């Protein structure tokens, strides 16, 4: 999976859409503490720090941003509050993860996954998240893109249905109609 983004990491960093700043303010307001966040599948850091403004890092004392693609991480913008870590797997083993995050169990206030959860071993991810997420008061926020934009909706639907046979099998479920309008937050 990491190899899928190696050759085009620079283009990916330049072209991937940014997330709305108020999304991160709203997520921050949901957490009881603001010490540590973990951005899982950070790619080149759009959720961790964003392009034109800090995102998660604006609201938390420290952010650990992990990804399986070393090349994506090389294109991430450095930030004093963000520690980028290359992981061997999308979801490291629980013991490795707790050690890697550096705060021990129940030490993470916010876990973000921006357009990456389809690559994860979900039982392993949620098991690890349970161990590191602060209780009570911790939040897991997982989101993806809403590709249905009015003027191009039909064109995009044709594009996805035509190209689906050529997609990596792990990414295919993205075509399911899991549409979040205006980033509905579910807890």
Q: What would you say about this model in short?
A:
The protein is an alpha/beta fold. The chain has helices at residues 9-15, 21-30, 70-74, 94-101, 122-132, 153-163; strands at 36-40, 62-67, 82-86, 110-114, 139-143.
Number of domains: 1
The profile of the biggest β sheet is: 5 strands, parallel
Roughly how many Å apart are the termini?
A: 29 Å
Helix-strand makeup class:
alpha/beta
Which bin fits the share of residues in helices? 25-40%
Radius of gyration: 16 Å
Protein name: S-adenosyl-L-methionine-dependent methyltransferase superfamily protein
Pfam family, one: Methyltransf_11
Organism: Zea mays
InterPro entries: Methyltransf_11 (IPR013216), SAM-dependent_MTases_sf (IPR029063)
Overview of the molecule:
The chain is of the alpha/beta class and 187 residues long. It has one domain: 3-Layer(aba) Sandwich (Rossmann fold), CATH 3.40.50.150. It is 28% helix and 14% strand. The protein contains six helices and five strands; from the N terminus they run H-H-E-E-H-E-H-E-H-E-H. A five-stranded parallel sheet has the order 3-2-1-4-5. The longest helix has 11 residues. The C terminus is likely disordered.
Defining key terms:
6 helices; S-adenosyl-L-methionine-dependent methyltransferase superfamily protein; SAM-dependent_MTases_sf; disordered C terminus; Methyltransf_11; 187 residues; five-stranded parallel beta sheet; alpha/beta; single chain; Rossmann fold
